[in-house]
Amino acid sequence: MPTAPLAPLEPEVVRLIQDLRLAPHPEGGFYRETFRSPVLVPTQRGERSTMTVIHFVLPARAVSAFHRVLSDEAWVHSGGDELELHVVSPQGGHSTAVLGPGSHAVVPAGHWQAARPVGPRFAHVTCVVAPGFEFVDFELVKRADLERKCPELPSDVLALAMP
Question: Which value, to the nearest 10 degrees, does the dihedral of the CA atoms of residues 154, 155, 157, 161 take?
Fold first, then answer.
């Protein structure tokens, strides 16, 4: 697993990352896959596990940069502060969900998604992807490309994309 310096993070976040054995995620934050179904299903992209599950932690002031997955993804709040989840449809429609204790949201396959914690500590979510997640089905988008595709998005939302 790749490692990143944890020194600038709050001690509570460092403990959570260490306790859950999380690694840095390319979109931002820290994650670890906790389940991958051994049952495979055919997709247009080849066989995939029926479902995968990860722990995902976003420290305060961190973001999960705009990305898309070619499967449905459920975000389930698991602890810490609330999480603001932004979803942009392929047609450019934008919606926002705020996840707190006992809540979840589903991002349909192929939609752009980004998230940030709402609070001073961290947001901890469990993400369930079906059919299961594979990095070949994952795409980050650059801010300029997202702005070209969705020029009506507010600047604070566009700021959640990679520079």
Answer: 140
**pLDDT exceeds cutoff 90 at 5:** no
∠ CA 59-60-65, nearest 5°, is 70
The DSSP 8-state label assigned to residue 133 in this structure reads P
Spatial separation of the C-alpha atoms in residues 32 and 38, rounded to whole Å: 17
CA–CA gap between residue 80 and residue 154 (Å, rounded): 27
In a domain, 123, yes or no: yes
For the chain, the first-to-last Cα distance in angstroms comes to 25
**Range(s) of the domain holding residue 123:** 11-158
For 73-88, the pLDDT digits (tens) are 999 999 999 999 999 9
